[in-house]
Each structure stands twice: as structure tokens, then as C-alpha cells.
Amino acid sequence: MIGKYAPDFQARAFVNGKIEDFRLSKLRGKWVILFFYPADFTFVCPTEIEGFAEKYEEFKKAGAEIVAVSRDTVYVHKAWVENDERVSKAKYPMVEDRKGEISRDYGVLNEVTGNAFRGLFIINPEGIIKYMVVTDDNVGRSTEETYRVLAALQSGGLCPVDWEPGQATLKV
Questions:
Q1: According to the model, what pLDDT value does residue 99 have?
Q2: C-alpha–C-alpha distance, residues 18 and 165, integer Å
Q3: Is 97 within 8 Å of 76 (Cβ atoms)?
Q4: 9 near 34, Cβ under 8 Å?
Q5: Contact indicator for 105, 118 with CB cutoff of 8 Å
Q6: pLDDT score, position 47
Q7: Residue 27: its pLDDT value, please?
Q8: Contacts of residue 142, Cβ cutoff 8 Å, sequence gap at least 6
Q9: What backbone phi and psi angles, to 5 degrees, belong to 19?
Q10: What's the rounded Cα separation, in Å, for the pair 8 and 127?
Q11: What is the torsion angle, in degrees rounded to the nearest 10, for the CA atoms of residue 153, residue 13, residue 133 and residue 64?
């Protein structure tokens, strides 16, 4: 999927206390951190929702929006936000994927469980997927690493192992 246009989708999302229609292509012109998680009301998932919520302003300052997707409905997202202090911090869209079409289009649908694997995609302002990582249900992602990769992609340079924002890129 790297180097290809991110599959566009339209779905309902729960965001800032409201149910809204959401379309990924409306974020063109911005970097997008699109992440899939298995299910609401689980164990690892709220730690990720909270982690991205706590870094949301930092990502926004870097010109990026965050979007979360799971197979749960917007009503389950709403109940989760209202009942879990960690999840209530999220100010970014939590998209429903009831039919699994979005998860399938991104190659993260677990056909055995019906949930999504933990997939994370960084999409550039032109709508091209520049980075992706997919992991099993039991391993949460690092918001620090996601931010580091976003900064590396935005640098336009060649970034060596363990490169950090502000460091020089490699010269050709």
C-alpha cells in the first residue's frame, strides 16, 4: 500500500460529543495518522486512544490530524467516551466500521475475529500512504515513534536509524 492513494471512505464518527458524517478525503492537504484498533471496552485499546489524545495538539501543530477506526458503532464509541476517563480525552474522530469495509480496504481486517488488527497509516497531504505498521491485538503502538516517523517523512530527507526531529538528515 506504500506509495498508493489511501482508500477513501465515508462513515459515521463520534467526535467531541457528537455523531457526525466523516469522509477521509476532506482531510486532503493535511497529514493524517489513521489508526485501527480491535474494539472498544477492551484492555490495550483505551491506552492507545488516551496516548494519541494526549499528543493530539502536538500532532496538529505538525500539520497532522488523527483518526481512529474500529468495528464498533458510534453509539458504542459514545458510551465508551462517557464511561472511560482515558478515552474521554479523545478530541479526534472515532469512526465506525460496522461492515468491516474500511478495515478490509486497508488490509487490517482479522477474518477470524471480525475485528481489525492494530494498523497505523501515515498519509501525506496528497492522500498517499507513506508509512504503515500492523500488529497483533496484544501490542500497543508508540505515539512517540509515530510522531518521530511523521517528522522524518515531513523532513523530506534521508533519515538514518534512530533519527530524531531536529537532527541532520543524511547527505547523498
A1: 97
A2: 35
A3: no
A4: no
A5: no
A6: 97
A7: 98
A8: none
A9: -95, 125
A10: 9
A11: 10
Q: Which residue ranges in the chain fall short of pLDDT 70?
A: none
Q: What's the pLDDT score for residue 80?
A: 97
pLDDT (tens digit per residue) in 135-164:
998 999 999 999 999 999 999 999 999 999
The reply to whether the predicted model has a pTM over 0.90 is: yes
Question: pLDDT digit string (tens) for 72-89?
Answer: 999 999 999 999 999 999
Q: Which three cell numbers stand for residue 74?
A: 458510534
Q: Give the per-residue pLDDT at 68.
A: 98
The secondary structure element, H or E, covering residue 57 is: helix 56-61
DSSP string, 60-122: HHTTEEEEEEESS-HHHHHHHHHH-TTGGG--S-EEE-TTSHHHHHTT-B-TTTSSB-EEEEE
> How far apart, in whole angstroms, are the C-alpha atoms of residue 7 and residue 25?
9
Active site amino acids: 45
Question: In the Cβ-directed half-sphere of 5, how many Cα atoms lie within 13 Å?
Answer: 7
Q: Kindly list the distances between the CA atom of residue 45 and the CA atoms of 5, 42, 61, 101, 130, in Å, as whole numbers in the listed order.
A: 27, 6, 24, 20, 24
Beta-strand pair 118-123/129-135: antiparallel
Domain 10-155 annotated CATH 3.60.150.10: no
Helix, strand, or coil (residue 83): helix
